Every structure is written in structure tokens, then in C-alpha cells.
Amino acid sequence: MSAPAQLRTQVAVVGAGPVGATVANYLGLYGVETLLIDRATEIVDYPRAVGMDDECLRSFQGVGLADEMLADMLQNIPLKMFGADGRCFADIRPATREFGWPRRNIFMQQLAEATLRGGLERYPHVRPLYGHELVRLEQDGTEVRLHLTGSDGERVLVHAEYVVAADGGRSTIRTQLGIPLVGDTHPHKWVVIECDNDPLDAPYTGLHCDPKRPYVCLDLPYNYRRWEFMLFPGEDAEAMLRPEKVRELLSGHVPDPTALNIIRARVYTHHSRVASRFVEGRIALVGDAAHLMPPWAGQGMNTGIRDATNVAWKLAAAVTGRAHPRILSTYDRERRAHAKAMVDLSDTLGRVLSPTRSWIARPRDTLFRGLGLAPAVRNWLLQMRFKPMPRYDEGGIVLHHGQRTSAVGRMLIQPEVETTEGRPVLLDDALGTWFTLIGYGTDPLIHLDADSRAFWDRVGTRYVTVAESRSGRSRTERPTSPTDSVVVEDIDGSLRDWFAAQPGTVAVIRPDRYVAAVTEPLQLPSVSVEFERLLAPRRDPDAKDPSAFPSLLEPLRGTS
Fold first, then answer.
1. Please, what are the averages of pLDDT over each run of 10 residues along the chain (560 residues)?
2. Is 454 helix (H, G, I), strand (E, B) or coil?
3. What is the pLDDT of residue 376?
4. Do strands 34-38 and 126-130 pair parallel, antiparallel, or not at all (unpaired)?
5. What is the DSSP-derived secondary structure letter of residue 390?
6. Alpha-helical runs (H) found in 49-196
7. Exposed, middle or buried, 377 (CB in 10 Å: 0-12/13-18/19+)?
8. Which residues neighbour 481 within 8 Å (Cβ) at sequence distance 6 or greater?
9. CB-based contacts of 44-49 (< 8 A; 24+ apart in sequence)
10. Bridge partners of residue 127, in order along the sequence
11. How far is CA 319 from CA 19, 24, 34, 125, in A?
12. For residue 251, what is the DSSP state?
């Protein structure tokens, strides 16, 4: 038997679904040599994940794909919950754009995956390797070795500095590492039915808490619609997929079930599980490989995209020498607890949806209708404030300095700001792609000593000054900076109000848009020293910079 072909890369991503492809897009943006591996050669051509939130869209904004994603989406879609009597008891319509994007959007996974894979074509240092299945892997202190088999029997050995396991709920990598998924498998199975000739005028996501048979009905883009029906104990899952049974399930929900063009009918089992650890040596688990949750909160893929955005910049920092490799361990500390919170939210919504006894369902409906009369509770529901937001604690590349009420460890807001050319842009478009020092009413550069400036420059930081908005200011009067700082204007005062609630006027913003520190300008040099200790970047002037990476993955010399 001939020796396997061998490839070397900085990061190998196993699994080219939306989470793996997002990791690969970010690594491409950061200039990291990346190999994206998937056993399938084509994208599965039917909807799977369908809900995308504002945090997720902000992640896609970061790699320049948000507008392309939005072109295939239904935006600001209400979520309605219907009681046992068929009446709506909760109508959730979040209007806030705290992070720059609408909070509830409906998409189709196959279209999003095509957009993400198309985005990779911008990066010659990112290479897809489709039609190759991972057979086994091993790692040591310097690399991970992936043994692959192609669809034609070809054997490939990949040498990677780091690996991202985005290979789904049945993750081969997680299994081989012996990492358990902790949690429960739900007793009820669900039938998912989809058609591409939507017969209903129901432009919302409906959770129908009908004790006779709980079900979900979703309006999808391009005239698609999905139903999800609970199966009861004793019902044969496979038998429920027969055409006559599918029509029976839809009877009473559509005018004529026989007129529907059914494109998919499948049975799903729901899991509520989180991996006991997200990092093992040089390997990080993301998405369904790291956590599984029921679909009721629409947060399975969104949680995975948060994983991707968090881990990608840390891997890029490690391989480029901008941070010590130990930074990867903070991914587990930051993401695992939040993934568990999203699983718990999904379970809670599932318990609201799924009672099959009227004596439980009717008091539930009465309670929710009563709660909806209270303005504070109503707003809490309408704006989806019940969704847990990540909060990263000290040790995860954040500095709290005892200010537990500040925004440190939370995602920065993203209002529109105005450039010096008078052009309105979302804030992230002014922040750049890496670390940012942002000052409100002050230029962070003028408060840095030589050593601090050298450190922030070495890790590739952008400096931003936010000027207060002045109505009636002419173009020639727009604020400028005598330094290298980028200047933007706070159009509606959102950043003024945000900084007013903080313990300082200068913030350190991480590449994933989380606030790493807030400080007074005079304390910026000492804060810089602490970040240099946390990141511990290489001082080697010859260390690789992302802009200097080779444009193609090179086979190992001397191998065949």
C-alpha cells in the first residue's frame, strides 16, 4: 500500500457546516493557513437550522457576509405562542437593534452554507477538502495528525498545529477524545415536515401548545413552510413518515394536504447535552460537537456561531504569536457555561410547549396571559430579554477590576456612527478586525507611553476616537485627530450613554466585540501592562504576521 499524501496546515477545521465554515472564514480573514475538511462533497439541499439572531448576524458582518445572508432571509419575524384553545398568549416581536441587526430572522441553512463556502473563495490560504472522512487522529505537544480517507479510497495525512472539531452531534473527534456529552435525551420524538408551496398566510413562527398534539409551524423564505409535530408513546416513528400519515398530521392545519409538495419528512430525537470540556490539548470542539439542544429557542446554530467567533481569533492569536497558546483554554471557560444556559432556555420553552394534559395546559395559558398585562414582563417577553447573554469573567482575557456592574465581559453595543467623510456606518466597520482601543471624547493614543504603544501595535490594535455629535456641524468642521486614531461621530448619543454608565472613557474591545476592559485614560498604561501579561505575545520580530502567510497550503517536502 502506498504512503498517504501529506499536507501541513496551521489550523484544520473538520466539518464544513455553518459553524465550521464560519471558523474557516474568520481564520481566512485573520490570514491563517486553514484546511476545511468534510466527508460530504455537496451541501444538503433542504432547510435544517432556520433561526438566526442579531449576535449571529454580527458575526457574519465581521467576515463581510451579513448583507449577503440577509438577502435570503425573512427579517424581524414574530414568535407567537398559542394556547390549548388556539388563542395567542404571547406575541414576541423584538424591535431592539442593540447589536446593529434585527433580533429574530428566519433563513434556510443550505443557502447560508452556500454563502459561507462562497466567502472562502476570497482567501487563497484557506483550502477546502471535501469528500474526505476523518478516520482517526492523534496529537502531541506540537501538532495534531489527522488520518483521512477520500471518497475514492485516497489516504491523506494532515499535520495541523490546531484542530477545530465542527463535525456535528455524532462527532468522530469528540468520540475519539473520550469527551462525554453530559445531559439528557428527551423521551418524545418529533416529525418534521417541509413543503415548498406554502398554502398559509401566517408570516410568523408559531408554537402551538395544543395538548391534543403540540406542534410548531414556521414560515420560511422562498415560499417554504415547516411543521414539527410531537409523537406520543407507542406511535411508530417510521410509520408516521408514510405519505398517508403525513397527510393525516397536516389535516386540519392546511386546506388540502394532498396539494402540498412535501420535500422532506423526518423524525428527530431531541437532546439537551453539553460536552464535559470544549478543549483537549490542541483541539477545540464547536457547535453540535460541543452541545446539543432542542430547537424551541432557535439557538442551536446561533450558539455554535458564537463558539466559532470566540475560538477563531484565539487560534489566530496563538498561531501568529500575538498571544501565548494558553489563550485557547479560555475558550472552554467562556463558552461552556453559556452553552449550558442556552440548553436550559430551550428546555424551558419546551416545557411550556409540550404539556399533553389539559389540566396543566389551561392554567399555563391563563398565567401567561396574566403576566402579559404587566408592562415590565410584557417588554421582557417582547424584546426577548429572557435569552441569556454571554458574560465572560476574569481569566478569559478580560479585566474587571472589581467593577462587576460595568459592561466588561459583555458584548459591546453597535450603533451607527459617522465617519469623517460624513458616511454613516455600523460601529464594527470602524473598529477593524482585531483588538481596538476606543475612547469617548478622548484619543486613546495620546494616553499611551512608548512601551504600551509598542505592545498594542505588536498585537495589531486599531485606535478609535468617538466624538460627541454636534448638530449643524458642517463638513469642514468634522472632528479629526492629529494621531493615527480613527475618528467617528456618535450620531444618536448611544455611545455617550453607554460610556456614561462605565467606570472610564476608554475601552479595550476584543476581536469578537466583547469588552475586555474599561478604564480612565490615565490608567491606560497600567491596563496595557496587564494585557501584555494576559496575552504574552511573542517579541520575536521575525514571528509570522497574518499578512505574510503563504497564499497556498504546501505539501510536506519529500513526501508523496
1. 88 97 98 96 86 95 96 92 87 85 93 96 96 95 95 92 96 97 90 95 92 93 95 91 94 94 92 96 97 87 96 96 93 93 86 73 71 56 62 76 75 94 93 96 94 93 91 58 84 94 94 94 93 82 40 34
2. helix
3. 56
4. parallel
5. P
6. 54-62, 66-70, 109-119, 172-177
7. middle
8. 443, 445, 465, 487
9. 44/109, 44/110, 45/110, 46/110, 46/194, 46/263, 46/264, 47/108, 47/109, 47/110, 47/194, 47/220, 47/224, 47/226, 47/264, 48/109, 48/110, 49/18, 49/107, 49/109, 49/112, 49/300, 49/301
10. 35
11. 20, 14, 11, 14
12. B
Q: Say if strands 224-230 and 181-195 run parallel, antiparallel, or are unpaired.
A: antiparallel
Whole-number pLDDT of residue 559 = 33
- Rounded distance between C-alpha atoms, residue 114 and residue 137, angstroms: 28
128, three cell numbers = 477546502
Within 8 A by CB and 6+ apart from 147, the residues are 4, 134, 135, 136, 137, 155, 156, 157
- Residue 401 one-letter amino acid: H
DSSP state of 523: G
- Between CA 286 and CA 278 the distance in angstroms is 7
Amino acid at 496: R
* φ/ψ bin of 376: left (φ > 0), alpha (ψ from -120 to 50), beta (otherwise): alpha
The position carrying cell 498604561 is 525
pTM score of the predicted model: 0.91
E strands within 421-522? 424-426, 436-440, 462-468, 486-490, 506-509, 515-519
Buried b (16+ CB within 10 A) or exposed e, 423-460: eeebbbbbbbbbbbbbbbbbbbbebbeeebbebbebbb
How crowded is residue 20: how many other Cβ atoms within 10 Å of its Cβ?
Answer: 27
Nearest-angstrom CA–CA distance, 445 and 465 = 9
